[in-house]
Specification:
Elements: E1 3-8, H1 12-23, E2 28-32, H2 38-41, E3 46-47, H3 49-52, H4 58-81, E4 92-96, H5 99-114, E5 120-122, H6 124-130, E6 140-144, E7 148-149, H7 152-165, E8 169-172, E9 176-182, E10 185-191, E11 194-203, E12 222-232, E13 241-244, E14 247-251, E15 256-260, H8 274-287, E16 295-306, E17 313-316, E18 323-327, H9 333-350, H10 363-369
The structure holds flavin-adenine dinucleotide (FAD).
Flavin-adenine dinucleotide (FAD) is lined by residues 8-14, 31-34, 37-40, 42-46, 152, 175-176, 204-208, 226, 228, 260-261, 302, 304-305, 327, 329-335.
């Protein structure tokens, strides 16, 4: 039996797409060769578009829309599945550890304020009031009350469960090997010895999205490894996300503090390393010396889907019909998962996306190569 849409990849991106498609009434099948989401399992889950954007523009607009959608999505998923996806409006402190940092943090805050966002400045005494566990060496911090967080594995799990409850088929442990193609039209996938016909395919295969040689030009997506360390605390000593030039701390509701993250170009090697863990622990000692006594819970590594210009690829594949990409979300796939899901659903079922997609069109790379 055929289906309307096959989604290749069940990380946060594929899971949220399957959910939105199912909600819109499409018969969706989501396939992942492993358990849900390689990068998504290792992610800190910060929803921080202002901290991540380098200036106003399409990426910031996309990120702000992604952020806006997270709270209602979390409430909806909790209602449908009973899963608390860990959405917490914690706010984020971007701290300055030295003079150079302070200049950079103040400069970023200036363009944020010029763009109309409200961002406070805390002097060292107020930083200490807000977060007594932070180092006394901190020279000040910009306060982003609008930046929040979520638990990415729980978000993917809840979205997949809600999608399944709405009739989507979730198939884990199934590798998509290739596609059913007639001329320039894709009309299905080949997976685990099966052929599944469908009207549309969505590639949401994270760092592996460039691996489908049958559909030239290959999507220019590459793995960028990120390592995280998790520390277990008894009563969380931090209330906010803490972001610095040397790393970040993300306090979770269960007392875990995620310390991130490295950024390494090492191919498809998903293992945490001694050097990566050592560097992250060093950044903890600089930011929050009292965390030295926290229990080491575990280290994680994920392969972020990187793209040549750092922006996601959302839209139809150039030269092909019946297939779209939702990948290359690099450091912000969790933030961008809900808006990506809406955009793909708009594109496939409604013909018109709710935001302009030119900056994210996969064809931008094909044009440059031509
Ligand atoms: C350390 C770290 C920290 C991060 N922190 C943040 C953060 O704070 N905020 C934020 O927004 N983002 C963050 N990110 C980025 C974010 O995690 C990613 O952008 C996001 O998870 C990408 O999701 P995805 O679904 O595209 O990829 P993935 O989660 O990797 O899922 C892709 C899935 O596709 C499957 N797949 C691949 N090929 C096939 C195939 N042929 N057949 C079947 N299945 C296939 C894989 O098995 C995988 O499960 C972080 C990432 C890392 C590594």
């Amino acid at each position: 039996m055929g289906s309307d849409v096959v989604v290749v990849g069940g990380g946060v991106i594929g899971a949220c797409i399957a959910y939105e498609l199912a909600k819109a009434g499409a018969r969706a099948v989501v396939m992942d060769r492993e358990a849900s989401g390689q990068a998504s399992r290792a992610s800190a889950g910060m929803l921080a578009p202002l901290s991540e954007a380098d200036g106003p523009g399409a990426f910031l607009d996309l990120g702000m829309e992604g952020l806006r959608l997270h709270r209602p999505l979390a409430e909806e998923l909790q209602e449908r599945t009973g899963i608390d996806v860990g959405y917490r409006p914690t706010g984020l402190l971007r701290v300055a550890l030295n003079e150079t940092d302070e200049v950079a943090v103040r400069r970023r805050r200036s363009w944020h304020m010029a763009a109309g966002f409200s961002v406070g400045w805390l002097d060292p005494a107020r930083v200490h009031d807000a977060e007594p566990a932070l180092s006394r060496d901190i020279r000040g911090a910009a306060y982003y009350s609008q930046e929040h967080q979520v638990s990415p594995p729980l978000l993917a799990q809840a979205a997949l469960r809600a999608a399944a409850d709405l009739g989507a088929v979730v198939r884990m442990g199934l590798n998509v090997e290739g596609f059913l193609i007639s001329g320039s039209r894709v009309h299905g996938v080949r997976a685990g010895g099966e052929q599944l016909e469908c009207d549309e395919v969505v590639i949401a295969a994270g760092a592996w999205s460039g691996a489908f040689a049958e559909l030239p030009p290959a999507l220019p997506v590459r793995p960028v490894r990120g390592q995280l360390v998790a520390l277990q605390t008894v009563s969380t000593p931090l209330r906010h996300l803490i972001y610095s030039s040397g790393g970040y701390l993300s306090p979770k509701p269960d007392g875990l503090i995620l310390v991130g993250a490295t950024q390494e170009e090492v191919g498809f090697d998903p293992r945490p390393t001694a050097a990566g863990v050592a560097g992250l622990l060093h950044s903890v000692a600089r930011l929050t010396p009292t965390l030295a006594s926290a229990a080491f819970a575990h280290a994680l590594a994920g392969l972020r889907p990187g793209s040549p210009d750092g922006l996601p690829l959302i839209g139809r594949l150039p030269g092909w019909s019946g297939i779209a990409a939702a990948t290359g979300h690099f450091r912000n796939g969790v933030l961008l998962a809900p808006i990506t899901a809406h955009l793909i659903t708009d594109l496939l079922l409604r013909g018109r996306p709710r935001l302009p997609l030119e900056a994210f069109d996969p064809a931008r790379f094909a044009v440059r190569a031509a």
